[in-house]
């Protein structure tokens, strides 16, 4: 029997999302998540699509290692356990791959050491990713583990976009440059957008707006990323659920000198207490829209700041690309919030950018066009699927390495 299944693990700072796919037809066999890892009220939600069974358990899950063991048990209960001979590989989302990883990599000790070395650049994400890999390895030492990096797609950025204008030797010593994140999503969505236009990826220029809890924009020319809004860490760029995005770096100096704030306090402020939640107390766009509709001024201002920043990046990437064939909205907010899409493009008709009110408000499942018929730039809603992309890359790499042996 050939092994055709791939388990995808996406370890966040306090969550573990997973999907088991059969790569013969890319179908999903199981999916789920463990939330609030490290708290007393952790929750595991598991769905086996093979039987339709859904189970939810609550109780303390101390760390990512315990979370993965709990997931393995749940999969086992549906006959989809990690011991299955049909499992070909485990694919891991790794957030920071630095400059070294331009492609996915089969995990060995050297790869692990490099991910470990990058922990200071992604302190919220890389440690969880490492625990996921190490635990998966201990459960199935014989199975290939593949790391798929958020940063890989952005390694094509020219130096003019990837470098900060700071002293070169200091930047090089500390490996300070713009790496970019959500690359798996930007790669997948830009390709799907080309497909929607009926063109090859190398023939289209796309601005991808990945608007989830974390949010980033990218400019993709002919299938290659030429700029993206996140930088050294996933803090730069757009206004996010809890992250500030761009601020004058002197804000941090000012808070230290005048406010006496420590590095950790500023880190928490900018990563966890800023963005939408810092501006209005809510980070869920549904709740913010509800408040705006009720006339809540604070929510209105938070929404306007979010949109203003988004619009600036659309304009910037329009200029970077010179010619834009499509703008793709994706992730939780981008796929679902018609009001965000409408507001972000309002007033940009001179650039050939507009949404059709009816198409934009309509709901739909797959990728769909929301710009008016005959528009110069196609505006589209393109659902992202990071797990499918990770599984595809994992399976391709494992298949390729088998061919070599
Ligand atoms: N129907 C909706 N309308 C507006 N926003 C939505 C809707 N559904 C989800 N969202 C937004 O999507 C966000 C989550 O996006 P998602 O891409 O799943 O995030 P992440 O993967 O970063 O956790 C939520 O915080 C919420 O603000
Ligand atoms: C890199 C990043 O911001 O990821 P997420 O959106 O999953 O937090
Ligand atoms: Mg996401």
From TrEMBL:
It catalyses: acetate + ATP = acetyl phosphate + ADP. Its EC number is 2.7.2.1. Pathway: Metabolic intermediate biosynthesis; acetyl-CoA biosynthesis; acetyl-CoA from acetate: step 1/2. The keyword Nucleotide-binding applies. Gene3D superfamilies: 3.30.420.40. Keywords: ATP-binding, Cytoplasm, Kinase, Magnesium, Metal-binding, Nucleotide-binding, Transferase. CDD domains: ASKHA_NBD_AcK_PK. GO terms for cellular component: cytoplasm. ATP binds at residues 17, 210-214, 284-286, 332-336. The keyword Cell membrane does not apply. Its cofactor is Mg(2+); Mn(2+). The record marks 182, 243 as: Transition state stabilizer. It is found in: Cytoplasm. Mg(2+) binds at residues 10, 386. Transmembrane segments: none annotated. Pfam families: Acetate_kinase. One of its GO terms (molecular function) is acetate kinase activity. It comes from the Bacteria. One of its GO terms (biological process) is acetate metabolic process. Substrate binds at residue 93. The active site is at residue 150. Mg(2+). Can also accept Mn(2+). Catalyzes the formation of acetyl phosphate from acetate and ATP. Can also catalyze the reverse reaction. Homodimer. Belongs to the acetokinase family. This is Acetate kinase. It comes from Streptomyces fagopyri.
């Amino acid at each position: 029997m050939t092994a055709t299944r791939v388990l995808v693990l996406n370890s966040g700072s306090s969550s573990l999302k997973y999907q088991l796919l059969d790569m013969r037809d890319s179908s999903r066999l199981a999916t789920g998540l463990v939330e609030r890892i490290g708290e007393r009220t952790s929750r595991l939600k598991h769905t086996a699509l093979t039987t339709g069974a859904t189970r939810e358990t609550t109780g303390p899950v101390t760390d990512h290692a315990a979370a993965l063991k709990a997931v393995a048990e749940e999969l086992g209960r549906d006959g989809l356990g990690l011991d299955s001979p049909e499992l070909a590989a485990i694919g891991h989302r790794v957030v920071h791959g630095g400059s070294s990883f331009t492609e996915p990599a089969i995990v060995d000790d050297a790869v692990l050491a490099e991910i470990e070395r990058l922990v200071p650049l992604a302190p919220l994400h890389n440690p969880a990713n490492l625990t996921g890999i190490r635990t998966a390895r201990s459960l199935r030492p014989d199975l290939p583990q593949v790391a798929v990096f958020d940063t890989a797609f952005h390694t094509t950025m020219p130096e003019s976009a990837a470098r900060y204008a700071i002293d070169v030797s200091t930047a090089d010593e500390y490996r300070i440059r713009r790496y970019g994140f959500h690359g798996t999503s930007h790669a997948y969505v830009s390709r799907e957008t080309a497909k929607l236009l009926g063109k090859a990826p190398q023939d289209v220029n796309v601005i991808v707006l990945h608007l989830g809890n974390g949010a980033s924009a990218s400019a993709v020319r002919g299938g290659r990323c030429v700029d993206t809004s996140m930088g050294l860490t996933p803090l730069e760029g757009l206004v996010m659920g809890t992250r500030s995005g761009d601020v004058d770096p002197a804000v941090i100096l000012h808070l230290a000198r005048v406010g006496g704030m420590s590095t950790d306090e500023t880190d928490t402020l900018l990563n966890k207490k800023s963005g939408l939640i810092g501006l209005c107390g809510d980070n869920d766009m549904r709740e913010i829209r509800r408040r705006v509709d009720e006339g809540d001024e604070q929510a209105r201002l938070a929404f306007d700041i979010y949109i203003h920043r988004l619009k600036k990046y659309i304009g910037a990437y329009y200029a970077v690309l010179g010619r834009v064939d499509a703008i793709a909205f994706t992730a939780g907010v981008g796929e679902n919030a018609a009001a965000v899409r409408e507001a972000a493009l309002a007033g940009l008709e001179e650039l050939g950018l507009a949404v059709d009110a009816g198409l934009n408000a309509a709901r739909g499942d797959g990728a769909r066009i929301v710009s008016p018929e005959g528009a110069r730039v196609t505006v589209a809603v393109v659902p992202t699927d990071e797990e499918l992309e990770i599984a595809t890359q994992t399976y391709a790499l494992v298949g390729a390495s088998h061919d070599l042996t």
